[in-house]
Design a protein that fits this description.
Blueprint lengths: L7 E2 L8 H6 L4 E4 L14 H12 L3 E5 L4 H11 L2 E3 L8 H10 L6 E5 L2 H11 L2 E4 L10 H14 L3
Parallel strand pairs: 1-6, 2-3, 2-5, 3-4, 5-6
The structure holds magnesium ion.
The site of magnesium ion has 7 residues, from loops.
Pfam family, one: HAD_2
GO molecular function, one term: phosphatidylglycerophosphatase activity
Organism: Halalkalibacter akibai (strain ATCC 43226 / DSM 21942 / CIP 109018 / JCM 9157 / 1139)
Length: about 160
């Protein structure tokens, strides 16, 4: 079960601070969207705005990598002025790897951030980059299939 263990276990995306980024030499963050940065299908709150502003100030590129539709990703990304890709087929590495190559993101300075073991953490591991797991935001609004996955995740985490 250790296979699914992320490199970093955080409470919330805002635990990734300026200092944290410097300490871990992070220049690019590929991030899941729903329940990682915002409640399912919502635009994100003021904490997120502040966090994105901090990343920009630090020259850290944030790239959304979601399995949700490109339309959802576009609606989310536009107001924040960030780059994002939908239909990423996580946990497959192919789409994320393709975008990393296009953006010239280096393996050593890129992390994958997400709230799910079987899509996000696994994807990061398949790509071969460090992974950071956060607690899901707005769990009460999640679709039923995700609620089911959470139960399995809980079982795996209890065996780390
Ligand atoms: Mg998610």
């Amino acid at each position: 079960m250790k296979f699914f263990k992320p490199d970093f276990e955080l409470q919330h995306f805002s635990d990734i601070t300026k200092e944290w980024l410097q300490q871990h030499h992070v220049q690019t963050i590929f991030s899941d969207l729903d329940s990682t940065l915002a409640t399912h299908d919502q635009p994100g709150d003021d904490d997120l705005k502040d966090w994105i502003a901090m990343l920009k100030q630090q020259n850290v590129q944030l790239v959304i990598a979601s399995n949700n539709s490109q339309a959802r990703v576009d609606r989310f990304c536009k107001p924040h002025g960030i780059l994002g890709f939908g239909k990423c087929k996580k946990p497959s590495a192919s789409e994320v790897r393709k975008h990393m190559t296009e953006l010239e993101a280096k393996d050593e300075t890129t992390i994958f951030l997400g709230d799910q073991l079987f899509t996000d953490v696994w994807c990061g591991k398949n790509v071969g980059i460090r992974t950071a797991l956060v607690n899901p935001i707005g769990q009460e609004h999640e679709p039923i299939q995700i609620v089911f996955k959470r139960k399995i995740e809980k079982w795996i985490k209890s065996r780390w």
